[in-house]
Amino acid sequence: MEILEKNINNIDVVSLSGRLDAYSAGDLEKKLDSLFEAAHIQLIINFEQLEYISSSGLRVLLAALKKVKRQHGDIKLACLKPNVKEVFNIAGFTQIFNIFDTVETASKGFENA
Amino acid sequence: MTHDQLELNIDAKLKNLSVIADFISSSMSQFGIEADDFEVQTAVDEACTNIIKYAYSGEGGIITLTCEVRDNDFVVTIRDRGKPFDPSSVPPSDLGADLDKRRIGGLGIYLMRRLMDDVSYSFDAKKGNTLVMRKTLTGKKQKH
Questions:
Q1: A54: distance to nearest CA of chain B, Å?
Q2: How many C-beta neighbours within 10 Å does residue A49 have?
Q3: CATH number of the domain bearing residue A56
Q4: Does the ipTM surpass 0.85?
């Protein structure tokens, strides 16, 4: 899995590509923790290039959301492929995360908050 | 050419999860199954993750996967020689709970059960752990 990150108007957009499984979940956890330590707690995770997610990936996302919510931040998700979206649905994660069709609409979600 | 059974023996390492996913995908295509492979891939990935992390406690070993078509089912059998690990012994995930109350565990096994039609576990002192996962191919199997 590759992780790219850029900051746009104080929102960090973290773009994932490849497979988010038990092997790569630790890399994402480290990346997100480094952002939280730098007080970056307004995040959009862009799933456009992410082909696969397992429960290990879901677990990292859930733990990260709990961390930022405690500091009144948020994580919004964008561009989930149908298979990835189905895993979110089955796991009940669509009720926990705000999910948007594009990064642009996700960032508007922060403006309106 | 059709195959009765396809087998993969692989080191129980997390980096091999993508190799396992590719094996499932290529097995389904060799059996002429047109169904989307991601459900079986995900279920097998979750099972193998548990074997690597819990049955072998991250210390390594061999995982043997076999794929076959029985009647109208695609059947994946996963064997390991780690500690006995029965997925059904894990408490179910609390899916309805809100963010604060949501526990982090149990999700992988829940996904396995939801994505496959049947998951059964057995332990034998000689053979080790055996997990058999079945996916019914209603209308999805291509005739040869």
A1: 7
A2: 14
A3: 3.30.750.24
A4: yes
